[in-house]
Design goal:
By secondary structure, this protein is α/β, with parallel strands linked by helices. The protein is 30% helix and 21% strand. The chain is built from 9 helices and 11 strands. It starts with 7 loop residues before the first strand and ends in a 14-residue tail after the last strand. It binds zinc ion (2 copies). One zinc ion (ZN) binds next to loops.
Length: 240
């Protein structure tokens, strides 16, 4: 999230080189990043974290549970700043509110970022969305939500039964239907943008995700964007 004050990155699942390449493609710089916030320690969220934190010399905010389980492959992360789920972190006018999510990780969190009256809610990698998560995301002007799998495609897909069970479980990932229920409960007149993320390449279909989200939003006109794995989305300006 880029504001007139702080500029922060949420997670760093790509190599630093790939992140640099993607930032270049959307006309953004990395050398003025103020901090990185980490949702949890799975490799697709922290692969480039060590190199990023060492090269840019920026603080990496995470829970102690996440830090304790960081993979050794990312090597040292200097300048770690801890928060507890539920805490708020303040950086140059930007407020980052944190909340627990249900996922099979050490102490995973979602974030709500607030700046100058604009609220961005982020919840990816969660097995289900209890009322606490919904309440934290209420009144967001923009949302980044997981829509990981379609149950039918998962069932017929290449994953072995135990992996399918993990994905479907309370500590796994959010299905399109779960996303739809959550999203429809979060609709309001000032919700401008929804980015649907963490979409499985094997067990989902982007067209189905968009159609499900569109139905959840009906009749409101909200910009719906699918975050693809192999290319960056464009930059979005979100106003209150
Ligand atoms: Zn995960
Ligand atoms: Zn993930």
């Amino acid at each position: 999230m880029v504001t007139r004050g702080a500029k922060v990155l949420i997670d760093c699942g790509f190599s630093f080189k790939q992140l640099q390449h993607r930032a270049d493609r959307v006309g953004e710089r990395l050398d003025d990043l103020d901090a990185v916030f980490v949702t949890h320690e799975h490799g697709d969220h922290v692969k480039g974290l060590g190199v990023l934190a060492r090269k840019l010399k920026i603080p990496a905010f995470m829970t102690t549970g996440t830090f304790a389980r960081l993979p050794g492959s990312i090597a040292e992360v200097p300048n770690v700043e801890y928060f507890a789920a539920g805490d708020s972190v303040h950086l140059d006018g930007l407020t980052v509110n944190t909340f627990s999510v249900s996922h099979d990780a050490g102490d995973p969190v979602g974030f709500c970022l607030g700046y100058d009256g604009v609220k961005l809610g982020i919840a990816a990698d969660l097995g289900h969305a209890p009322n606490l998560v919904r309440l934290r995301l209420l009144d967001s002007h923009a949302l980044v939500l997981e829509s990981n799998y379609c149950p039918d495609l998962l069932r017929c897909g290449p994953y072995p039964p135990q992996v399918q069970q993990r994905i479907r479980g309370r500590f796994g990932h959010l299905s399109n239907a779960d996303m739809s229920v959550l999203l429809s409960s979060l609709a309001h007149d000032s919700l401008r943008l929804v980015v649907l993320s963490h979409i499985s390449a094997e067990n989902n279909d982007p067209a189905l995700v968009v159609e499900t989200a569109r139905r959840a939003m009906h009749p409101r006109r909200v910009e719906l964007v699918v975050a693809e794995q192999h290319q960056p989305t464009r930059l979005f300006e979100v106003l209150p």
